[in-house]
Amino acid sequence: MASRTRSSSPRAGLAVPLGVVGVVAVPAAIAAARYVSGVALLDAAWAIPVAAAASVAALLLVRGITGHVRFTPMRSVRAARILGVAGLCVMLAATIAVGFYEVLLRLEG
Questions:
Q1: Cα 17 from chain centroid?
Q2: What is the C-alpha to C-alpha distance for residues 9 and 22, in angstroms, rounded to an integer?
Q3: If you write DSSP's letter for every residue of 45-68 in order, what string do you get?
Q4: Are 26 and 51 in contact (CB under 8 A)?
Q5: What pLDDT sits at residue 1?
Q6: In a 3-state reduction of DSSP, which class is residue 10?
Q7: The pLDDT value given to residue 69
Q8: Which range of residues forms the domain containing residue 67?
Q9: What pLDDT was estimated at residue 4?
Q10: Nearest to residue 95, comparing CAs of 35, 25, 40?
Q11: How far apart are CA 57 and CA 60, in angstroms?
Q12: 77 neighbors 12 (Cβ within 8 angstroms)
């Protein structure tokens, strides 16, 4: 019975670190561009797909956990959802910033 009630708990436990990766990927890449010589700020745009993949994976792992298993620790599910959405917001903001920069470069010359 214990294995049955805790079947979705590893999914929630895996979703939280994926959500953290989704939130931290872009700011970490920007910090690396600032402190590592040889890495330009535009190179930080390579972290956008990492943030997108990690955030979507976190949200997909948490999808449906609350309805199927009654004994799932709700704190980890809620944290994974919040981190997944925050990661998507960070990724969207970075995508808009890079896209706007590209538009400005095209209009300039």
A1: 9
A2: 20
A3: GGHHHHHHHHHHHHHHHHTTHHHH
A4: yes
A5: 44
A6: helix
A7: 52
A8: 2-108
A9: 47
A10: 25
A11: 5
A12: yes
Q: What angle do CA 79, 27, 82 make, to 5 degrees?
A: 15
What does the pLDDT profile of the chain (109 residues) look like in tens digits? 444 444 446 777 899 999 999 999 999 999 999 999 998 989 999 999 999 999 999 999 988 776 555 555 677 888 899 999 999 999 999 999 999 999 999 999 7
Residue 90 is encoded by which pair of tokens? 């960070």
The rounded radius of gyration (Å) of the Cα atoms in the chain is: 18
| Share in percent of the chain as helix, strand, coil (round to 5) | 85, 0, 15
Question: Rounded to whole angstroms, how far apart are CA atoms 83 and 71?
Answer: 21
CA 10, 8, 16, 99 torsion-angle sign: positive
* Residue written as token pair 């298993």: 69
- Total domains, the chain: 1
